[in-house]
Request: fold
Amino acid sequence: MKVTDKDFRKMVQSELRKIRRAFPKNLSDELGIGRFHLSLLDDMTYLIKDRHAESRLNIKNNEELSKQSQLALIGLISVGYLCLAIDLREDSSSGRTLLPADFIKPEVTVDPNLIIRSFLVQIVNHGLSILELVNCGLDNSARVLVRVLNETSWLSLVLFSSRTKLIQYSSHINDPEKEKEIWRKSFSLGQLTKELINLESRFGLPNDIVRAIGDTRNELYRAYSQSIHSSYVPTVLGSFGLPFSNSEDEIMSFSLFGTATKASNGTLEDLNWCLFYYHLMFFAITKEIHKYKATPHNELWRAAYALSICYRHIYLSEYKKKFDE
Reply:
């Protein structure tokens, strides 16, 4: 990372020269203005690069963080395969599409598979961004995206499960006021929660599990809303990195430009909870509501499903280890 644009560098150099010349030499030297050169930029970009490299190394060397990061990557790659498996061509050799192309016609002419696939793109890219931010030591910024990812994944599940919701979501895109009204009525947090609870019950989850999932969902929304709204605690504490050891001699490090932090473990755990829940619900909706069966030609779908099974197995195995400790 460096400011390499020649025009920008020349402009900065020119302006700094003007600033230096505006002061008498003795005053310029006393105030340090005489040292204002391109190194003001270059020194900081080298520092940013070093901080990110150090953060990556610290996270790689921390077993717990490294495992959570690699687990999330498996989950995201599976969703990536899922995205590639959804073919929009009506004459596709992969067999019938996930949803019929006319699923939301005549109200909406858009292919619903395009909407679902677009959500999968956003989920994967948000998740990869979270991993990259954590690896660079930018944990509080990653937490902002965890909140975005949670809402995006919940919304996509609700839309995928309901023709009516898909129609509402894709109607009135040229009427901002009407769109805002529909969003308040159908896609607020309360409405999404209600729809998800109905789906969980429909798929046969026991009431105590449904309540536990609801509690986790509410807690995640509350906690990560603090980051997205720059509340006092995440703003102030998020400016420091928590030490990895419990030694009293270690102090929190200033996180300007990024620093690896023990707090990232919670961020990655919540990322994996979100992905685990998404895997469970997406394939349940596929099977129980849409009765979709991929044809033998659709190898990408089978790859996505196989990796999803692997991801869920590893997630539960790691959770059990932690629970048994």
Residues 311 and 317 are 10 Å apart (CA to CA). The chain has one domain: 75-324. The longest strand covers residues 240-241. The mean pLDDT is 91.
